[in-house]
Each structure stands twice: as C-alpha cells, then as structure tokens.
Amino acid sequence: MNGAGPVAVTLSTQRLKWRDQAIDLLAPIINALPEPIFVIDSETHVIAVNAAAQALSPAIRSGEPLSRSLRSPDMLDAVARVLAGGETEKTVWVERLPVECWFEAHVAPMQIEGFEPAAVVSLRDLTESRRVERMRVDFVANASHELRTPLASLLGFVETLQGPAREDAVTRNKFLGIMREQAQRMARLVDDLLSLSRIEQHMHLRP
Fold first, then answer.
1. Which of 121, 126, 172, 184 keeps 20 to 30 A from 43, CA to CA?
2. Helix (H) or strand (E) holding 46
3. Other Cβ atoms closer than 10 A to 45
4. Do 120 and 142 belong to one domain?
C-alpha cells in the first residue's frame, strides 16, 4: 500500500482550504478596485478576478487554470517565473477570437502571511492604441505615396513655366489651374495627417 496517499490528501485539503480563505480575503479587495485585476495561486489557478478584468477578458474565470483561460505562452511563462520567486514582470498577450484584442499585463508576486505564494495580475487594454497605431502606419504610408504624385506634377509644371511656356499666357493659365488643384489635394492630405496627430495626442493625454 502506498503510504503517500493520506499525505497527498492532506496537502490537497490544505490547499483547498487555503484557496477558499484566500478567495474570501481577496475578493472584496480586488472587486473594489477599478483596474482589471486577477490573482493566481501557486498552482496557477485563478482564485480571484474582479468585474473589470472579466469585462476585459471574459475567458478569465475564478477557479480555473490560467492555461485554460488564455492562450499566451509569454504570459504563462511570466506568471511561472513570478510564482517561482521572480520579480514583477510586464508582458503583452493577444486574444485572437472572437475579435483581436491586445493586453498589457503586470505580474507581481504577492505574499500574505500564513498563505502560499501567489501572483497578482493587473491589465491594461491596448486594443484601441494598437488599432490607431496600425491605422497611422497604413495612412502615413498611403499619404506618402499620394503626396508624391501631385508634388511631381507641381515640379513638372514649374519647370515648364520657367522654360518653354514662359511667354505662353494660355498654357501658363492652364498649368496654374492644374497646379492649384494639385496643391489643394496636397493640403487635404496634410490636414488628414494633422487630424491623425491630434487623435494620437488625445489618446496620450487621456488618463
């Protein structure tokens, strides 16, 4: 007969008791916080999660292994290192389904006297900032391409007006009209770039 059986049962019972006590202790505290926060025990089970965290990532549920709640090796590795005695870590994970969401997570060790080591995770939603950044990169690339066309036209018309069409009033007036249209097109592109810059400034200033 294996003599480790009763010991294992006792340890498991102690852990369950500890987990229940930790939940009773932590739940009211983290639920009072506006930031998305959840707590992981030494066996990487989620033992407490507040409403803000569940709203941000519904897959994170109390009582379940963290590995079942999210699919992020970087996040799981960071939690494992912190639980093993490491210092606070920051990592990013991406949820692909049902829609792509980006999160920044701060994983910090938590030690309460009389309880097993745990880790507390605070979250920040990066989805909107990532979306704006992607939009900015795409727009700047497109705008740069779009600016080349009217700029090349303007340079070509200026060269023509300085050369063969210098004394040709009809050609000069025609080219000046086209140059005005191209300049207005460039001005609209610049206005769009400035609008995008204002959006980014607003996001950085938002608390």
1. 126
2. strand 46-49
3. 19
4. no
What's the confidence (pLDDT) of residue 6? 45
Give mean pLDDT, residues 176-202: 77
Tell me what pLDDT residue 106 has: 93
Q: Of 13, 42, 31, 27, which is closest to residue 115 (Cα–Cα)?
A: 42
Enumerate residues 6+ apart whose C-beta is below 8 A from 149. none
Contact criterion met (CB below 8 Å) for 15 and 43: yes
Is it the case that residue 90 has pLDDT exceeding 90? yes
Q: Looking at the 3D structure of the chain, how many domains does it have?
A: 2
Asked whether residue 162 falls in the same domain as residue 81, the answer is no
Q: Which of 125, 151, 181 is a domain's end point?
A: 125
Taking the alpha carbons of 43, 44, 47, 48 in that order, is the dihedral positive or negative? positive
CATH number at residue 199: 1.10.287.130
Q: Which residues pair with 90 in a beta bridge?
A: 106
14-28, 40-54, 100-114, 178-192 — which is least confidently predicted? Answer: 14-28
Q: 51, 52, 32, 30: which is closest to 40 by C-alpha?
A: 30
The per-type count for the chain, helices as H runs and strands as E runs, is 6, 5
Reported as a single tens digit per residue, the pLDDT across 36-64 is 999 998 888 888 889 988 888 888 888 88
* Chosen domain end from 105, 125, 145: 125
Q: Is a pLDDT exceeding 60 seen at residue 86?
A: yes
